[in-house]
Amino acid sequence: MQQAADWEGGRGTPAHEGGLEVAPAEGCAQGKARVSSDAVAGDGFSRFAPSGDELATDAVFAVEQAHLTEVHGKLQKIARDAVAAMEAVAAQAAEDKKNMADELAVNFATWDDVLETHADIVAMNNIIEAHDMANSVQAERLRAAEVLLREPYFAKIELQFKQGQPAKELYIGSAGISDENYRRLVVDWRSPVAEVYYNQVMGPTSYVADGRTISVDLKVRRQFDIRGDRLLSYFDSDVAIEDKLLLASLARGRSAHMQAITATIQKEQNRVVRHEDVPVLQVAGVAGSGKTSVLMQRIAYLFYQHRGALDPTQVFLISPNPVFGRYIDRVLPDLGERNPEILTWAQFLAPLLPTGRGVGEGEVSYERLRAIDAAVAGFEFDRGDFRDIVSAGVRLLGGDAIEKVSAKFGHLPAGPHRVTLMGEELDGRLGARLKSLAALESTHDEVADLPLEEQLRLFGETFDPQTDEEARTLALTYLKEKHADAIEAVRAMGWLDVDRVGRRLLGSDGLTSVEWVYLKMVLTGMGNPDAKYVMIDEVQDYSEGQLAVMARYFRRAHFLLLGDPNQAIAEGTASWDEIRAVFEAERGQVSECRLMTSYRSTPAITDLFASLLPAGEAMEVSSVQREAPAPVVAVCSDEEEWRAALARVVDEAARAGGLTAVVAPWKSEARRLAKLLADTVPAAVLLGEGDSLPAEGVVIVPLKLAKGLEFDRVIIPDASARTFPANDLARRRLYTTISRATRHLTMLSAGPLTELLG
Ligand SMILES: Nc1ncnc2c1ncn2[C@@H]1O[C@H](COP(=O)(O)OP(=O)(O)OP(=O)(O)O)[C@@H](O)[C@H]1O
Q: Which residues participate in ATP binding (predicted)?
């Protein structure tokens, strides 16, 4: 066992028994991590594809290639036919519209004429609607064909439904499609029968369709690697111990955007993707276990299940940071689906807050929010809780009037019902006030004094009213725009001084933004009742308060919570049990799943981050990746050495190709590193919130922004005890940092290496 010098005092660092071996090297002490994993290695994969000669003589290969060629040809025809049909519909629609417009004699002379005109218009609309419908069917077909032309299918199953009968062949792909005779060419991966493929059990098995369990005998389970109309290889699995397609997919490495895992969803992942629709599903998964991938597949699955009834605007994905949002935003479009609303916490919260109020820190306990619930239960408004609505210097609604409206509904408790009724009444009063202003001579003069282009923009003509009524109508249009802020303030219950109510109720100086939004929800019922699904990725990074706000805001939605308790990288976030408790309190029962296999990193890197897990948990984590060079550690004895070593490893990484991340613990440290490297390795760029992940190169990125992402190489610039002291938070931060690496990991240490790696 070697010892490396401590650059601060020249003291020796302790040796790391059973962990990383640290050996001196030029400039810094260097070494390789010892690997204990015997996970699936290269040999299994090298047999995956038959060689050229074998392919030529492989009868199955020839049959499958012929089938693929036929299906691909049919898909091309389907796409061509769909385009032609859409063009024909468009031409016909244009013709029909022209004819109908020519024939349509708008006549309101008598009541009979009105009825006839109305009937003509309805008939015209029906024809237009029929065209739209025909087009949307063809558009859907075209979309499916386009998705499939890239890879028509990835698997085939042969199912025997009854003994003695021939087995039925089904090809499974990213979308489902039939030929012109309604014969299924490809079965959608989300269809009930496809479950048999994902269950990875040969022989007698079953699937559920329309609530019925259907028993089948799975005779053949064949996986394909296909590009367009070319079959690259196939693999028949008789026992599902090794998934060759999975190994092939993992060997292909990462790309600048997350890829769908449709063809290789594993059994434990499939349980989450096809999980029954429960109010809350909480999924705990180790780093790289496919939580985000599974989340995307689940969304695609839900769109399929609720086709026509679930719109993407009713699904929300709360993502850890904007870079991550962009990293995942191609997965669903590649599957032929639209993206849900992808928001960070800040993007979710900001529009709910009054202008000028920052999102602030999210650290709020559930207890504190429950105190708000308790206080509001026995509460009554007073005059000071109401604010004048003022716009452009005009007081449009006074606090006294609002208090009177409140008293009118005083028989109701102060809460959402009463506030809604008050809102409606105040909306009416504001409308009446604007109307009375619109009747004033002074307003008409104001409108007449508007620049001409302003009048044209507002009215489509200059202000030249012929009657009083016309003058009032035009003035009202002007006032509605002038006082749009007041109209919006009434709609958003801006007349209620939430801060004042909070101070009164809680006796505190001020509310945090989380408390403010929560109190507003409790008082006014603010929320999104139309959201049907909300997915929170990296759920361990939110406080109880933030989670309770989301649970309350999306009050009718079903939640999917995915996270890794060991990746909680900030203080004040909810523990795994607290997350469950918040959702149990807010939404009732919480169902749970676990994902324990890691797909991202090599066995050596997986072993290393798994060694940071609490005792017991590490034993369960396994890696599926192939082996690659062991992680490298360099302990430097002084700052100068460390700088030189950093420049060297970053430069080497830049030359090696692929994408490297220098993961800094904090934003300030990332900036410092960027400055430090600016002269020596200018290729290394600082990644900001507004950036997308490049396909290759070197990025310097704070850990917070690296959340959920992965890189071919990770460089930890300082794995010293100073950056990672021996405590739980640092342990989780190191685990998260290391697990961003897929194949290569280099750790430098300015001074003694952290004990956590000992
Ligand atoms: N079934 C699978 N087939 C192919 N690749 C997979 C599969 N499951 C996961 N992967 C790959 O493993 C990597 C990690 O997946 P993902 O980012 O979804 O994991 P995660 O659990 O969200 O990670 P973390 O929490 O550490 O950010 C990705 O490159 C993903 O494509």
A: 285-292
